[in-house]
Design a protein that fits this description.
- Helix 5 runs antiparallel to helix 6.
- Strands 1-2 form a two-stranded antiparallel sheet.
- The chain is mainly alpha-helical.
- The termini are close together.
Length: 287
């Protein structure tokens, strides 16, 4: 009887030990280039008050620029998500993406309006760590979009939130030692990243809303005719007066939840990723 081929796992299958680190999405050259381009546009969208000289025509439309960039970022984030999806987001990865995005969106309203208590941030850090930067960017953007629909927070700030959260979650996937670092050292690294990134998220989101202030607070509002050092001083004062306490609360909650719930959540995410075997190919060989 002629031997029949039997399906076997490819040699590239992730190991089934606890140290295996399967990633749902591996960024290819096209995905990396697209993400870099959109991130560069995002930097301009957030930082244009410091990049445009006082005589620039852009400053003459200081109240319109955030709306223009918001519309542009919606399209660009969609392009990034589509490009990353084409690079390997299979049905199993889509299912996990949907579950994590829904969980994050449900966690966000828990502490809405209460001193920065936002538990979704710790979930984004751990998810990005386990599932990699490509999955992380997609998850962060989608989670913020879903939470905006859930809470009625749709506005010109939403695309900026999507991009900022995409960066936040992607950054966790870029941390060193994804396959080797475990235990307390990994938790300490994730807690430190979550603390710093929580402040960074708040700061760059302040950049999105700061030009809208106009004459509402002349001492700390963006002045399109002022030099960069003067506007930088105004921005620091704006952050200190409006969001420092909120950012500190977000950072503290992220650290506490990472240190207390992190081991269990990391273990569950890694187990689910290994069992899903996102990148496992099926080959045939003779018995």
């Amino acid at each position: 009887m002629t031997p029949q081929p039997t399906p076997t796992r490819a040699a590239t299958q992730p190991r089934t030990t606890s140290t295996a680190q399967a990633r749902a999405i591996r960024l290819g050259p096209r995905s990396t280039a697209t993400l870099a381009l959109v991130s560069a546009v995002g930097v301009v969208a957030f930082g244009w008050p410091f990049l445009a000289p006082p005589t620039s025509e852009l400053n003459a439309h200081a109240q319109d620029a955030p709306w223009l960039f918001a519309g542009l970022l919606v399209l660009l984030v969609a392009v990034v998500a589509a490009t990353i999806s084409e690079s390997g987001l299979g049905p199993k990865a889509v299912a996990m993406l949907g579950v994590l995005a829904a969980t994050g969106a449900a966690l966000r309203p828990i502490g809405a309006g209460t001193a920065g208590i936002e538990p979704m941030f710790f979930l984004m850090v751990l998810s990005g760590r386990v599932l990699g930067p490509g999955f992380g960017f997609t998850l962060g953007s989608l989670t913020m979009f879903a939470s905006a629909l859930l809470t009625g927070g749709v506005g010109p700030w939403m695309p900026f939130q999507m991009l900022a959260m995409g960066w936040f979650t992607m950054g966790a996937g870029l941390l060193p030692g994804p396959d080797r670092l475990r235990g307390r050292a990994e938790l300490a690294l994730l807690a430190l990243y979550g603390f710093l990134a929580a402040f960074a998220y708040g700061t760059i989101m302040n950049l999105a809303g700061w030009p809208f202030m106009g004459a509402l607070a002349s001492g700390i509002a963006f002045d399109p005719h002022a030099a960069v050092p003067a506007n930088l001083a105004r921005f620091v004062a704006y952050c200190t007066a409006t969001s420092l306490g909120w950012d500190l609360g977000r950072a503290a909650v992220t650290v506490v939840l990472t240190l207390t719930l992190g081991p269990a959540v990391l273990k569950a995410l890694r187990r689910a990723t290994r069992r899903a075997a996102f990148e496992t190919a099926v080959t045939f060989e003779a018995r």
